[in-house]
Amino acid sequence: MRHLRRVWRSLSPAPHPPGGGARRGAETNKIVDQCERLQLQSAGIAKYVAEVLQGKNQKAVITASASRDLVIQRLSLVRSVCESEEQRLLEHVHGEEERAHQSILTQRAHWADAIQKLDTLRTSMVDMLTRLNDLQLIQKEQEIFERAEEAEGILDPQDSEKLSFNEKCAWSPLLTQLWATSVIWSLSGMEEVLIDERTVSPLLHLSEDRRTLTFTAKKSRACPDDPERFDHWPNALAATAFQTGIHAWIVNVKHSCAYKVGVASAQLPRKGSGSDCRLGHNAFSWVFSRYDREFCFSHNGQHEPLALLRCPAQLGMLLDLQAGELVFYDPASGTVLHIHREAFPQRLLPVFAVADQVISIAHGPLATVRPDPPPHHPCRSGHASR
């Protein structure tokens, strides 16, 4: 920088008269200072490009390579675990099939032998009737009694679970969790679920996009009466019914501590305050419910408590009608919260109830979030949660 100042002074013109020269010198020093700052700035940038960016580039290459290795390593492990689980389950299914087949063969042989014995006894007794006279029949009374007793000892066939294939052999927590995660995070697996405004309780407000339900505590006078509408419990049904296949949807429940979500039969009654309209208290509804910090699965008046470590911000529901499975899933943690298995009716609809604040249907799996657990707050109303 001193060299810059010497060069600058050597290029300066002859001194000016007193007064004017001082001002010019001050301006000159300002320009020189500015040039020095520009030169320092350029040197800093050059150093940053040469050292920092170069180092960043090398680090990016190394980190990207490590990330690729990590992805390959973890997915290889997932594939390995999936292949092992597949092999285990297929062997289990094959073993159960063989067991059922052998049980049926054993039963077939047993009853074929029983039929042969009965035919032999019947032939023998018919022969006695046709061949012997009355006196001879009396003399054969003991023999006839023994043969009749032998026939009675051959019991009628009774159905047994041992003769049926046990579908539980294909149940796997790992497979269920991987399957649920895959369906929930697949756009192709998501349903466009909208709420049927005709079913919405007067205690609820439905948003214009038909995805959000808000509890209002007081019945809306502007709500027109409809045969499809729930008139007491704060319930609502989806507009689309599921009859076959696999279906999945997500509900945002972060802001409510009193809600129910699940599925219901189209036969679910809508009118009155009885249990036949109350979700989870009848044979027409299968729901996951929250009341404050209590969670449970409810169906037909049976309530199974669920021990959850955190309050889920979202709930994913997967309905496999062919397999007869209803899965409740936490998309944020990848946790299966509950599985219910049974032969469902052929026409089911997503169902919702909220008695505190708001719940809403998510637009898709890519909209899911991983929030911190919502802060605990006491429910302001328990009108329909329990």
How would you describe the overall organization of this protein?
- With 386 residues, the protein is of the alpha+beta class.
- Helices cover 39% and strands 19% of the residues.
- The protein contains five helices and 13 strands.
- A seven-stranded antiparallel beta sheet has the order 1-2-13-4-9-10-11, covered by helices on one side.
- Pfam families: PRY, SPRY.
- This is B box and SPRY domain-containing protein.
- InterPro entries: B30.2/SPRY, B30.2/SPRY_sf, Butyrophylin_SPRY, ConA-like_dom_sf, PRY, SPRY_dom, TRIM/RBCC.
What are the key terms here?
386 residues, alpha+beta, seven-stranded antiparallel sheet, six-stranded antiparallel sheet, 5 helices, 13 strands, 39% helix, disordered C terminus, B30.2/SPRY, SPRY_dom, B box and SPRY domain-containing protein, B30.2/SPRY_sf
